[in-house]
Amino acid sequence: MSYKSDIEIAREANKKPIQEIGEKLGIPSDHLLPYGHDKAKVSQDFINSVKGNKNGKLVLVTAINPTPAGEGKTTTTVGLGDGLNRIGKKAAVCIREASLGPCFGMKGGAAGGGYAQVVPMEEMNLHFTGDFHAITTAHNLLSAMIDNHIYWGNELGIDERRVVWRRVLDMNDRALRDIVTSLGGVANGFPRQTGFDITVASEVMAILCLSTDLEDLEHRLGNIIVAYTRDKQPITCRDIKADGAMTVLLKDAMQPNLVQTLENNPAFVHGGPFANIAHGCNSVMATTTALKLADYVVTEAGFGADLGAEKFMNIKCRKAGLAPSVVVVVATVRAMKMNGGVAKADLGAENVEAVKKGCPNLGRHIENVKSFGVPVVVAINHFVTDTDAEVQAVKDYVAEQGSEAILCQHWAKGSEGTEELATRVAAIAEADQANFAPLYPDDMPLLQKAETIAKRIYRADEVLADQKIRNQLKEWEDAGYGNLPVCMAKTQYSFTTDPGRRGAPTGHSVPIREVRLSAGAGFVIVICGEIMTMPGLPSKPAAEAIKLNADGDIEGLF
Fold first, then answer.
1. Does 303 participate in catalysis according to the annotation?
2. Are 191 and 181 a contacting pair, CB within 8 Å?
3. d(Cα 46, Cα 26) in Å, to the nearest integer?
4. What is the mean pLDDT for each group of 10 consecutive residues in the chain (558 residues)?
5. Closest-CA residue to 495 (of 507, 479, 482)
6. Annotated catalytic residue, options 96, 316, 449, 516
7. Catalytic residue among 24, 39, 41, 73
8. Is 399 known to be catalytic?
């Protein structure tokens, strides 16, 4: 049996004018800044006007460690939002914007899938409302002003060897990871080694997603450390006098984007920080605004719960004063089998024993999320090859962990396929069982914060950090940054720093390779193992299949 592609389903959507979607949340049409007929930004004036409203219930959707078998976190987020509306709840969805690099690379887009999608799918996965372009431009304006300051006499005494602010581009391009700039003689400045990161790894992206208003945005931008002097004194964006102009470039990008699901329910799509090098959640502005307008807000965090949910709890919730009422952990039978040692080519055949063998990865995530004081429900994202016995094996395992697993068929059936999940999530949220607390206090030393995450979330025996790293963390503590949370950067594929170790390993070590201070975003990045801040394209990039057909429609996006 053949199934329609995501883009075919999205193209057949019966979209409503964005003003009608805004009405569902009580947003007057004159406070929507339309980008065409089906997407709009919500004005800052309206956002300010609802700040006194009571908050709705916050639901986080996270997942097991990603596998090539697919998990469907965004699809489940959208499906649950539709499901809550189906059972009579006033619900909104909050997800991240898609990056062009992964879209043309291997991952594809970020609008959900099947009959649980956010539309307009093509625009969302391409240029959308231009937010990422604004972030790219603001970031690179600062880069240009740093080099320009050095060229015109270097009044601040920047050590050209200690410029830590790289450039960014919203594309996967390994050739730009490590480059030399300003070649060609005196007129072009002073040559130095630098490189490009992908836009979603920019501190500007993290700042935009954590800022509460334009004033907060400008203050955070000013705090960005861009370089050091020869005696290792920090030089900030404010010193370069770029913070004002950057804020101007980001003025419209700060306003959340409103779109709709296939079932015409409201969805905020705003921001998209890397879930490795940053905190991997949509913007605080979008989430807090949605909570003032809807009874339920369903949001997601990047990658598995060991990265995304941990950062959602320890960074985003801590900074924004948020507290989730319930967490949904997404798993698939296929991923359980892959964690149980089955090759991707053999996932279609029934293998209950492999499912059971792979379930400890799910169990580890359930236990971790519960450690934050929040109740957990497991959503089994259904694939047509799943057998009843395999699904029951997951349900039985989850029941042994003191939680409940619910089969979800939103990919094929939309909200009808998540009605049971939505009913259970609403019941738990309304029972107010959550007693949320971050994993560590603000005043814990930075290295101890990293050790707490490594031992309690990754189940590592130890953290390996040489004296240089320990000294750097101590210097930042002495400089007043000790109260910041830590943002762990490691592979998403494993609880360890080895992407090949699936399941729920114990008895491993977490080596810290590097630490970085994101003074503007307000966290310390702890890089463990090999992490790329500029991905490359695969041997057969998705871009090869993306084209316009004879009717002028886009084909090949997924």
1. yes
2. yes
3. 10
4. 80 94 97 96 96 96 89 93 98 94 79 92 90 98 98 97 96 95 93 94 97 97 97 96 98 97 98 89 97 98 94 96 97 93 89 95 97 97 94 97 96 96 97 93 97 97 96 96 96 93 93 95 93 88 90 84
5. 507
6. 96
7. 73
8. no
